[in-house]
Amino acid sequence: MNEQLLKNISKHVKLSEEEKNLFEIFWTEKTLDKRDYLLRNGEICRTDNYIIAGTLKAFYINSESGREEILYFAIDDWWASDIDSFQKQKSSIYNIQALEKTKLLQINHHSFNEMLKQIPKLEKYFRIILENYLGSLQRRIITNNVLDAEQRYFEFIEQYPKIINKVPQYLIASYLGISAEFLSRIRKKTKNLLN
């Protein structure tokens, strides 16, 4: 299973065979069933998680409305963690839950730091991953502040085409900050324009 992660890493960093073998010892596999939690609000995020196959959602519950607010989705070949909780080993403020059966590779906090010490090249890889994540967060902030709901939907489709078919529409609506009914109207309007 590590071949997929090593292939991902090799896009950014070349590891020797010795480093690849060493890399293997730090990771464990985990499978979540649909609706299983990877992380719950108030828990410490003990692992960084690479998704081999499956789909996760990260969300918090809005204390005023009681509704689920989607922070992000994570699918095959992506990462899912509460970075702040993982790095500082403090309580998380949100939840991460499986939307379908999901296979993960996990590394705990101590092993992560030990791995970076023993394979320094991986510092570059994880910096790139964090930079990509930060870029997507910045893009989302700008999108939410500048674009209307319809434009946000089209931006989402363009940025994350693989997610559209893996995630229920009501969750995409939550991610976009609109109602499921409004998203349905946007999709219907789009279909009519294409026909």
What topology emerges from the helices and strands here?
Layout: H1 2-10, H2 17-24, E1 28-32, E2 37-39, E3 47-53, E4 55-61, E5 68-75, H3 83-88, E6 95-98, E7 102-108, H4 109-118, H5 122-146, H6 149-159, H7 161-164, H8 169-176, H9 180-194
Structure description:
The structure is a single chain. By secondary structure, the protein is of the alpha+beta class. The protein has a domain of 120 residues: Jelly Rolls (Sandwich). The strands form 2 sheets. It has a 4-stranded antiparallel β-sheet with strand order 2-6-4-5. The protein is globular. The N and C termini lie far apart (43 Å). 22% of the residues are buried. The mean pLDDT is 93.
Brief overview:
This protein is α+β, with helices and mostly antiparallel strands and 195 residues long. The protein has helices at residues 2-10, 17-24, 83-88, 109-118, 122-146, 149-159, 161-164, 169-176, 180-194; strands spanning 28-32, 37-39, 47-53, 55-61, 68-75, 95-98, 102-108.
Give the strand line-up of the largest sheet: 2-6-4-5
What is the structural class? Answer: alpha+beta
Give the percentage of residues in beta strands.
15-25%
Mean of pLDDT: 93
Task: Please state the overall shape, judged from the principal axes of the Cα atoms.
Answer: globular
Characteristic terms for this protein:
195 residues; alpha+beta; Jelly Rolls; three-stranded antiparallel beta sheet; 9 helices; 21% strand; globular
